[in-house]
């Protein structure tokens, strides 16, 4: 059993253009998350208060994030429900299929 999800991604082209599945899974499980601050993910996830974004993915930065988040763990756990709600409203396969269908109909 874990209390916090950690997603230490590198700022590389593949990471900037991929879907952060592990981040989505942690949010779906009502877990607060420590994640590397990548611009491409910030656009989608910056509104979610249960994610602590860290600059860089070095062991030291991850450790700082763990210390910071665990010092306020009860607060982050309460906020985690908002992350799950966001995922259900925006990123399920059903929602994505509707968006894709609407996009195709516009063409």
Computed structural class? mainly alpha
Helix fraction bin: 55-70%
Task: Calculate the terminal CA-CA distance, rounded to whole Å.
Answer: 46 Å
Spatial strand arrangement across the major sheet: 1-2-3
Number of helices: 6
Radius of gyration: 15 Å
Q: What overall geometry do the principal axes of the alpha carbons give? A: globular
**What is the string of helix and strand elements?**
EHHEHEHHH
How many β-strand runs?
Answer: 3
Largest sheet: 3 strands, parallel
Beta-strand content estimate: 5-15%
Low-confidence region ranges: none
- Give the overall average pLDDT: 89
Q: What distinguishing features does this structure have?
A:
mainly alpha
How are the secondary structure elements laid out?
Layout: E1 5-7, H1 13-16, H2 21-28, E2 33-36, H3 39-45, E3 51-54, H4 59-70, H5 73-90, H6 93-106
Parallel strand pairs: 1-2, 2-3
Kindly describe this structure.
The chain is globular. Helix content is about 60%, strand content about 10%. The mean pLDDT is about 90. The protein has about 110 residues and is mainly α. The chain has a three-stranded parallel β-sheet, sandwiched between helices.
């Amino acid at each position: 059993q874990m209390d916090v999800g950690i997603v230490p991604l590198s700022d590389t082209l593949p990471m900037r253009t991929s879907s952060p599945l592990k981040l989505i899974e942690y949010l779906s499980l009502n877990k607060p998350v420590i994640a590397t601050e990548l611009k491409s993910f910030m656009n989608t996830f910056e509104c979610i208060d249960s994610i602590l974004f860290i600059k860089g993915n070095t062991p030291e930065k991850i450790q700082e994030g763990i210390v910071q988040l665990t010092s306020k763990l009860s607060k982050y756990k309460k906020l985690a429900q908002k992350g799950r709600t966001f995922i259900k409203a925006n990123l399920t396969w059903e929602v994505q299929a509707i968006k894709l269908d609407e996009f195709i109909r516009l063409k």
